[in-house]
Amino acid sequence: MTETGPLDNMLAQMEQAREYVDIDDGIFERLKYPERTLSVSLPVRMDDGSVEVFDAYRCQFDGARGPFKGGIRFHPTVSEEEVQALAGWMTWKTALVDLPFGGAKGGIICQPKELSQSEIEQLTRRYTEGIRRIIGPDTDIPAPDVNTNPRTMAWIMDTYSVYQGYAVPEIVTGKPLEVGGTAGRVEATGRGVTIITEETFEYLGTDVAQADVAIQGFGNVGSVTARLLHERGANVVAVSDVTGAVYDPSGLDVPDVSAYVENNDGRLEGYPDAEFITNDDLLTLDVDALIPAAIEDVITVDVADRLEADVVVEAANGPTTFDAAAVLRDRDVPVVPDILANAGGVIVSYLEWVQNSQQYSWELEEVNRDLEARLTEAFDEMLAAYEGKDIPDLRTAAYTIALERTADAHEYRGLFP
Ligand code: NAD
Question: Whose CA is nearest to atom 20 of ligand 1?
Fold first, then answer.
């Protein structure tokens, strides 16, 4: 069976939810198309003096509810289609957690591990120059995603500010604290995944302190989720990265794994105190919760048939294919959708942007309190829709809320010109 790519996946998810929500045909048609996708070629002078040209994109999917918002990813598998799907998911995510934003995403096709720091800086600055015509603090505000971090955001902020002639911290979120970042942003997505996992356990009657959890991906999102769930008493039995997975059925010493990775060029490979297994093995472990936190399309129909977790909490964007989601639904394995589970990042990005706009900064406790309140409210709204409207799965329930809010914004704003 051939499975579809991320954009077809997203469109199929929208169509499925449409059956349960009353949206005008013309508005639904508008919601299926990105407003614009800018494609740029980025010439970069490499360390050896040669010039290499990289392809990159910025997609602005839907801006009916506010300025576009979404991360930037550096990865070899970036494509125009992938960026559009990710921008769509950002649109539904910001609507679901009720932020006054639309959805966007950007990406550069590159292998960052093969580039030096200075080449990555040149590439980031050239990309910022390429997309500065369509981004802005009131129009489109980028943020970190796969292989980008606060350092990358500082370069974007600096490049944009140099062109403007004054500092514009609110052009990006996820910045270092020293240039207008907010307390709690680096951890926000993993903290949000942890909050949603705990809410899910409570709903399913699982005690977090007795729970076995497997997490795919040990980058920003996966490692913070692993640490926070470990702190709450969960048994994190396996974590993985692109080099493979480490597994200990009695629970990994997560701080020790993190320290090892930090001193091993960011890689899990060679961790001495656990069994080494494959990413495929990790995805099919018999655990209370499986948390994919790496890339999209890893839970295929084949994996879904063999999956033994009691629940999937999607920390990555789009980790479950549309067809695999149908298999899991038939097998009664609930899937907590990405647009809720990983929304912590964009919520705290919003709080950072608000603080920048006010030239004021909040304490960590205030940021975390706001994050938790918004996420738990969205979780409750999703459950109310799921139970109240006899909807087949949690993702469809979440989409009905997101689509309805975005469609209502279009309804009020109208079609112009
Ligand atoms: P990251 O670059 O910090 O980490 C990615 C991790 O995935 C790394 O451990 C990497 O080794 C691993 N990985 C990459 N390819 C893999 C593969 N083929 N198999 C197994 N592991 C693989 O990225 P991140 O910021 O942690 O993002 C992870 C996911 O979470 C992405 O889907 C991203 O879109 C999503 N997300 C991130 C944020 C954020 O704030 N960073 C917010 C919302 C959603």
Answer: 242
